[in-house]
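Kindly review both lines to help learners:
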Amino acid sequence: MARIFPILLVLSIACLLTLVLSLSVGSLAIPLENLPSLLFSSQLSEQSSLHYNVVVDLRLPRTLSAMLVGAELALAGCLMQVLLRNPLADPYVLGVSGGASVGALIAMLLGLAGWQVSGSALIGAITNMVLVFGLAHGRGSWSPTRLLLTGVVIASGWGAIISFLLSISQDTSLRGMLFWLMGDLSNTDLPGWDSLLAIICLLIAFAMARPLNLMVRGEMQARALGVSPYPLQICLYLLASLLTAMAVTRGGNIGFIGLVVPHILRQLIGSDHRLLLPASVLAGGLLLMLADTFARTGLAPQQLPVGVITAMIGVPLFLFVLQRRSRSGQL
């Protein structure tokens, strides 16, 4: 426990530095010394007004959204890996992203935009949550295996509907659909109620840190030590699904954050969820901010979907970790 504060402090400082970097770099470079006046001063020159519009109206909402979405996905992935007792589980494995994608694509197909697309995505994600939980529970016993199988099957069904919607969509809307499916933060606004809800989810998850540590050892040991697995599993499912729904609603399908971040942190700092949960939140936000900064500056002025960048980072990083574990005899 003595190392919790130093690790979280380092991650917090890294997030702050990445935030400053993201606000300053781009097609229009903003000197670092000008950022405080742009963010906190009300009297601006004509040139400063241009910089203000770039930083406050464009980069700040996108950067804060990247931090929030990365934190939500990493926390959801950490909870999902405990729920399914599988270190390779990710937030999308139960089909939440598929339901959200279908809702968003239908809205785009109808010519809707902005909050209407986000609202439709949220409705689709919630529909998936109810559908998966209801079918997995049924009349019999509820188990992580049954939940996983139900989620995978429903996710495949969502995938078929997505392919159908793309095949009947017009060319004018197809590019926007594909960008949303690959993850895109270019049209996000400043985080609001969803950031507060994410903080509440983190506090609830942190309050369950000790039962989570016991659940990792198996249901039998958890019961023996006074933890009731079933209510905990329901709470984990609801928290992970809600976090994933909010992340997908804001940023589309951004892969690998929820898989790579918790898995790598377990190798580096251990499986104590009192440290792992807040560290995952900070590291997830940090990684997605870095990826989004590169997505809009790597081929500037052309912008890339941030989901492409996270996959390019996540695949080699994850394979490297797996290779190290296999060499050390842990896999």
